[in-house]
Inverse folding.
């Protein structure tokens, strides 16, 4: 295959010289000088000086449909004349026309001609480089901040999910620390089967700590969570990486919060890319699974940054391990709980409610919420259950209705922990507090009470 690049000025020669591999021929056609024809070979690329407006030029070049032509001219009249003469020699040759302004793009006429706006392409690349520079500056800042620290606690939410676990591992690696000098910890154990499988398969070690032990650490870093989540348990936070909406009323030495991102793992992945750090398969697998699980395979709360990070990690990650993490087995008791909850489900104005009762593992509640959103006609699934001394509620929706995180904050912000994104949210509230706040006499009334609370808030759906 031969690439024929027709330019009325040499400005784009350098950026275009790298679009082929070594096995492909590249021929640059530039305007003739002093009416003479010259041909030189530069870095393996042939450069010809020709009259770009002469039809015979393209006959002499033996243009055929096997070639690939890239064309750019600064004046529209010049571009049109070159294109006319080129196609008169070979009407079917594939041509990409480079334009400087999106407003210049004409409607598609011939199937073998496409238009690409150079300014937009360059702008995106430049913006990406600015982003890399900012990430490198942040990396330098965080390394200077942690350089003299004897140890750094990396703290996650109580029941860490794949995004939190992956982000913790990535932050430790970014700082050049190990398990001893930067332990991963939370105030609660992991309960979801998928997360337990991830911990086992990727050899992730984290410690369940109590608030009294925090004073033993030089610095406290938080991943996928912010200080208000912990209430008075955590007196300070020095470093924060998170993708949840910012919480007010706290101070921090360093924080990188990007609420427009679908996963905290995406933020950390960008740091590795910007710094040119080669990711080992274990970390890449964790980050890939973190993005995949938090964005529901890029279908929920994802943006272009998540897609780019996902694409970067895909060839590095171990997909066999990810398949094992994603499909943990259900024991017979969990299956029975599913069946009972589904039999008692209610669908009110496209909102499906199911109360699963008391469970031994908390993860069965969000797993059932994911499943219930697949029920025909349901735009919301709200599944509740009792785990230990808490009432846990998992909320899912289709994305074009009210913001799930805002809904749960409106109902439960004064009673327990509540928050999330547009399409998914979670509530954890002590059962005693729930009964007192909403005048619930006994456990059998919990499901009806939840249905009334949510029904009053989300019945008027908005985009």
């Amino acid at each position: 295959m031969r690439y024929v690049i027709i330019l009325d000025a040499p400005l784009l020669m350098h950026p275009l010289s790298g679009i082929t591999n070594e096995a492909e021929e590249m021929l640059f056609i530039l305007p003739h000088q002093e009416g003479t024809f010259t041909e030189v070979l530069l870095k393996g690329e042939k450069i010809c000086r020709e009259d770009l407006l002469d039809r015979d030029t393209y006959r002499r070049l033996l243009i055929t449909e096997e070639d690939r032509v890239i064309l750019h001219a600064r004046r529209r009249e010049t571009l049109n004349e070159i294109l006319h003469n080129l196609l008169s020699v070979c009407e079917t040759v594939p041509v990409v026309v480079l334009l400087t302004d999106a407003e210049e793009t004409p409607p598609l006429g011939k199937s073998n001609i496409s238009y690409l706006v150079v300014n937009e392409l360059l702008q995106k690349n430049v913006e990406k480089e600015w982003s890399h520079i900012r990430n490198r500056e942040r990396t330098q800042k965080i390394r200077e901040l942690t350089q003299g620290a004897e140890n750094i606690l990396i703290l996650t939410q109580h029941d860490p999910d794949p995004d939190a676990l992956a982000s913790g591992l990535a932050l430790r690696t970014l700082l050049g620390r190990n398990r001893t000098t930067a332990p991963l910890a939370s105030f609660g154990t992991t309960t979801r089967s998928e997360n337990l499988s991830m911990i086992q398969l990727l050899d992730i070690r984290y410690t369940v700590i109590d608030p009294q032990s925090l004073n033993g650490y030089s610095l406290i870093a938080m991943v996928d969570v912010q200080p208000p989540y912990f209430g008075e348990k955590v007196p300070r936070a020095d470093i924060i990486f998170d993708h949840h909406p910012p919480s007010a009323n706290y101070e921090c030495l360093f924080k990188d919060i990007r609420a427009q991102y679908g996963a905290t793992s995406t933020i950390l992945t960008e740091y590795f890319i910007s710094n040119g750090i080669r990711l080992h398969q274990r970390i890449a697998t964790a980050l890939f699974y973190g993005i995949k699980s938090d964005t529901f395979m890029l279908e929920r709360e994802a943006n272009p940054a998540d897609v780019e990070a996902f694409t970067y990690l895909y060839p590095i990650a171990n997909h066999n391990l990810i398949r094992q993490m994603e499909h943990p087995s259900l024991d017979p008791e969990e299956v029975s709980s599913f069946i009972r909850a589904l039999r008692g489900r209610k669908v009110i104005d496209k909102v499906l409610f199911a109360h699963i009762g008391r469970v031994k593992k908390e993860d069965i509640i969000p797993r059932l919420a994911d499943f219930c959103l697949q029920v025909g006609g349901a735009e919301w699934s709200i599944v509740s259950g009792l785990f230990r001394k808490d009432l846990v509620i998992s909320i899912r929706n289709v994305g074009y209705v009210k913001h799930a995180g805002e809904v749960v904050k409106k109902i439960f912000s004064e009673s327990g922990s509540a928050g999330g994104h547009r399409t998914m949210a979670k509530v954890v509230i002590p059962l005693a507090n729930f009964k007192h706040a909403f005048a619930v006499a006994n456990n059998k009334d919990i499901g009806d009470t939840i249905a009334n609370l949510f029904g009053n808030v989300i019945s008027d759906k908005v985009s």
Remarks:
- The first helix runs from residue 13 to 16.
